[in-house]
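This section describes the prediction task in plain terms. A model, or a person checking by hand, is given the sequence of a single protein chain and must write out its three-dimensional structure as a string of tokens. No templates, partner chains or ligands are provided. The sample shown here is typical of the held-out split.
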Amino acid sequence: MIKASEYAERRLRLLNMMEPSSAMVVFSGVSKCKSADEDYPFEVARNFYYLTGIDQPDSILLLINSEGEQKEFLFVSPFDERKEKWYGKRLTFEEAETLSGIHNVLVNSSFQSKLDATLSSKVAQYGEVSTLYLDLDREVKIADETYTRDYLSTVSKAYDGLAILDAYPLITTLRLRKSTAEIQEFRSAIRTTHIGINSVLHILEPGRKEYELADAFLHAINDDNGYQGLSFPTIMASGRHTTCLHYPTPFDTVKDGDLVLMDLGARTGYYCADVSRTYPANGKYSPEQLAAYRLVLEANKMVADMAKPGLTIAELQKAVIDLYERELPRIGLLAEGERVEDVYFHSVSHFIGLDTHDPYFSPNDKRYRDIPLEAGMVISDEPGLYFSRLGFGIRIEDDLLITERGCEVLTRDIPKEPEAIEKLLQSQR
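The expected answer:
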């Protein structure tokens, strides 16, 4: 569990990154409408959670860096007996202070007046504030019909001459390097994921529905992690569906001779495990499947051997492509006219954290591939091969913690050697 002192240290680092005479507003978000009067389950904005540890809607963080002073305020919902009867308990001011380490906890209805006192040149409660940072993640909804990007327009009109900058890149840059406490959350999520995978293997056999396997994973991890749920919707693909990277409809029946590709993860404190394994449904890889599997495994191990501070994800990707270009023709798995990009069409790695694909600068910014790795970063290691004409795909994914001299394979205890997998599956039969 992350302590309040760590949230306080994160906010201090962020304040020191901000421009002089500036303020920052970060919202926790609200639920989004699913259909009619039904909402999706609330998911806290990860940047807000990273800075506060608060996991409830309608909360706001205000940071001020002005006149040589640094101030922080947290705004939360007041006690409302009727709402608590319908929607459950909210944090008290004291509980919010204990979790976040923020001493100035106020009712959220006072946020706008506090912001006005901060930004208005007539009041200037904290001296001149000429710059406002907003977390402009396009998905952060802050009211029934308002996103932070809508709020940007409101603030721009209200305060002439105010420069507005995006806080998102500053916060996500901080999120890249994980603390000791964050790594412990990863270890817990991975341990739970391993338990979930074992529950799938106990029932894996021809004749099962893909969704039965996915349900077994979900049930096992929720039993283990106190209903903290999935890192992302489980991908449970069999047979020809293993060639679809993000196979979304696990309705098919597992057949004899099929491979089953599972891409899944549990989460702890919102920190996401992200693991892929590919198993033979009948307990034995065919010769063709085994040849492809061994090559993917070689690529997976090569990436783990290479990963270290100073290297980039782009360099890891190039190494995998070079290996495939050399080895695929040699083992006869490239058809005439086929290219490596026809059978391997994704990146070998991404950052992992509070999001399964931890962002850099913006959610879809691909510059993360060229950032030199640093100790404390957590990345995926997920080479794959997908042969539509042969009716099978293979992906092996581990989670790597970059260390001072190389990396630690956090998921090393989840079997991936083909002999170990075959022995495990056959013993369970």
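For orientation: The radius of gyration is 24 Å.
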